[in-house]
Each structure stands twice: as structure tokens, then as C-alpha cells.
Design brief:
about 280 residues, alpha/beta, 5-stranded mixed beta sheet, transferase
């Protein structure tokens, strides 16, 4: 069986299980379950702490894992990212009190507090900065107030909590993270079970990003309409009983669907419909 690590809690847990369910895999029914066996698909899921997943996968005990890019890089484990999953996005940045520094070049001799010391130490080394890194779990912004550090490095979304603590974001982002699929360095990239698993997840990603659009258009406007809805290879075009009209079907990006419908209507298209895609293979 293919052995896969899944986050057991935190912001990645729910979306990861939801995506796996959409991909046709059986998932646990209760949060206390540590292992779920999907006999039909020949997959065994292990629910682990997100920070530990890269370590388990790198050891070779598990074949594949779903974790955050930040957690993978911070672990230093011998594992690699093979597919980005488009959820769990976050930006990792430095912050400090106004006037303390403008970027890493000003950090010499300072102490940086973070929950991701592996990422920060590597970034400081790449910048040629001689600074100390102290590990803290959670609420690292308090480190500056208590004098433990002059700078913090943490996940930043809106920056509201930092501003409330009297801090400002400085410098360029250290890292942009999201949920990713990982495997051990040197693992067989052509393993059939792993490839099938990746195809299923890729199918979910495409299904979430596209909708199927159907519409009727007069023949003389067909080329203009097809230019708006080229599909992946080309759209399906079928003659209608009413002479001079054809029916067109094509996949279009979901975020552009409303604009495309407006443009088609202006061309004279009618009966314009969109439907969700639940699964696909490209």
C-alpha cells in the first residue's frame, strides 16, 4: 500500500482531508483516528503533527506527505516538494519596532525570535548577516516587548496583530508558503501508485479552477466566440436543429467565467450556462 502522511490538526488538516476526499480517498471519521486504511485504493493514511511529516517522509517509512512548504524547509529533512496544492498560503516576514531596522542588512549583532529557526538561520546566512536566532513557540511578537529579541520572524497575513503590538513589517518576504505534497529525496519518481495519487490531486486542482461552459451561437460569430472560449485543446462544437446555430462546450477559468459570459452575450450567444467540474484528468 501507498503510505501517506496527512496533517492531524492545524490550518492544513481540514483542507488536506477535504482535497483527499474530493480525489476519491477514504478519510478518517473522527479526529482521534491516527491511521485510516483505504483498501479499495490501496492507500494507508497516517495523521501526524504537520511539523513531523517531513521527517517521517525523509526516513522512508512513509512514501508521501502533505505539509507546508515552510515546515518542509524549516525541518531540513531530506525531502522535496513535488506538487503545490493552492491552500494554506502564508507569507513569512521580519518585523520590529519602527526605527530599529529596515531589513536584514541592519540585523548584525541582533537577536531574532521565531518559531522557524531553520528558515531564518538559512536566510541570514544567505544575506551574510551575523545575528542570533532564538526559538519560541507561538506569539513571538511578545519577544520584543519582553526584551528577548530585537526582531521577530513570523507568518504575516494582514499585519494587524503586529501593528497592535507596535511593530512594523520590514524587508522583503523571507518565504511564501502553501500546502505541498512531498516525497523523500531520491525516491522513485515513476512509482505507479504515487503517480496515480498525484494525478488525482492534480485533477482536483483543475476541477476547482475551471467550470464547464455551454452556449448557443450563430455560425457567423463562431470564430469570435471560440476565441473567448478556446478550451484546453479546442471546444466541442455541435450543429443545432435550428439552421445557422451551433452549440459550443468548453472549459473556462472559473475566475473569468462571468466576464466571458458577458462577452459572449454581446456576440449574440444565448443559453449560456456554467456547471461545476467535480473531477477530471488532463
Amino acid at each position: 500500500m501507498l503510505r501517506i502522511a496527512v496533517p492531524n490538526k492545524g490550518s492544513l488538516s481540514g483542507p488536506a482531508s477535504e482535497m483527499l476526499h474530493e480525489a476519491g480517498y477514504r478519510q478518517r471519521k473522527e479526529s482521534k483516528e491516527l491511521v485510516t486504511v483505504d483498501i479499495e485504493n490501496e492507500v494507508e493514511f497516517f495523521y501526524l503533527r504537520p511539523k513531523d511529516i517531513a521527517i517521517y517522509v525523509a526516513s522512508g517509512k512513509l512514501d508521501i506527505g502533505i505539509t507546508g512548504r515552510d515546515l518542509l524547509l524549516d525541518s531540513g529533512a531530506s525531502a522535496e516538494e513535488i506538487l503545490a496544492l493552492n491552500f494554506g498560503r502564508s507569507t513569512f516576514r521580519y518585523a520590529t519596532r519602527p526605527g530599529t531596522a529596515t531589513g536584514p542588512e541592519d540585523f548584525h549583532g541582533m537577536t531574532i525570535a521565531t518559531s522557524y529557526e531553520g528558515i531564518v538561520a538559512k536566510h541570514l546566512a544567505e544575506c551574510g548577516v551575523d545575528a542570533s536566532v532564538v526559538h519560541l513557540d507561538g506569539a513571538v511578537e511578545t519577544a520584543i516587548q519582553l526584551g528577548v529579541a530585537q526582531v521577530i520572524a513570523d507568518v504575516v497575513e494582514t499585519g494587524t496583530s503586529l501593528r497592535n503590538a507596535g511593530l512594523e513589517v520590514i524587508g522583503e518576504p523571507i518565504l511564501k508558503s502553501e500546502a505541498v505534497v512531498i516525497r523523500r529525496n531520491g525516491a522513485d519518481a515513476d512509482d505507479p501508485q504515487a503517480q496515480q495519487f498525484l494525478r488525482r490531486l492534480q485533477g482536483v486542482l483543475v476541477a476547482r479552477s475551471y467550470v464547464m461552459m455551454d452556449y448557443d451561437i450563430r455560425v457567423e460569430q463562431l470564430e469570435n466566440a471560440v476565441a473567448l472560449t478556446p478550451g484546453l485543446e479546442s471546444p466541442t462544437v455541435s450543429p443545432l436543429h435550428h439552421e445557422g446555430w451551433v452549440a459550443v462546450r468548453a472549459m473556462v477559468p472559473a475566475k473569468e467565467a462571468q466576464r466571458i459570459m458577458d462577452d459572449l452575450y454581446e456576440l449574440g450567444a444565448r443559453a449560456i450556462l456554467t456547471t461545476s467540474i467535480h473531477a477530471c484528468r488532463l
